[in-house]
Amino acid sequence: MMDEQxxxxxxxxxxxxxxxxxxxxxxxxxxxxxxxTMSDYMNYRAMPGPGVLEKMAIVFGVTxxxxxxxxxxxxAQIINGKLELVKxxxxxxxxxxxxxxxxxxxPIIGKIAAGQPIEAIEDIVDxxxxxxxxxxxxxxxxxxxxxxxMNKIVPNGNYAILRKQxxxxxxxxxxxxxxxxxATLKKVYKFTDLIVLEPSSYDxxxxxxxxxxxxxxxxxxxxxxxxxxxxMINN
Length: 235
What we know:
alpha+beta; 9-stranded mixed beta sheet
């Protein structure tokens, strides 16, 4: 099967070379590969990879499927959060298979305070269908953003979608509860004796919030920011 596909690819390349009045050497030079490598393709000793096929397609003004027919009926699809190629299924069948599945909706919570597990919070103001499947959907939740301190990232009133976790890397955005108050969305920076919550706003009046043992009894990260959603789009 592999040898047959090598022959198909070589035949298609030959046809495109003739059509474009181009030699094998010229094509090799234009896509940046050795002439010996091109010879291997044309004599069925090797198959061009996706990157080489893409370059050839650009030079010839065609698609990769016009060179390597295995790309026909192949589409890109996000599966478990990863972009993968799906073969042998037409678009209608793919749509039906995806949308006929029972999808767990993401709960959007109005406010979150300390001392209560997220699963038990009743302040659910909306639910949205996730834009793609994730490995652990029960670990995903949304939070309504109140205020303008992060409006470069999430405008006031929009939903911040988060993954439940208690730690983030410096510079990552997280939902944080400080001294039992409602969760706030900020960039988090942790140092030996200091935690800094940094806003990201077009309003310069918002400044860093700095917490130490002296001015903070309890600080808790409840989720890492993934992306934002406008409630108007979902309604």
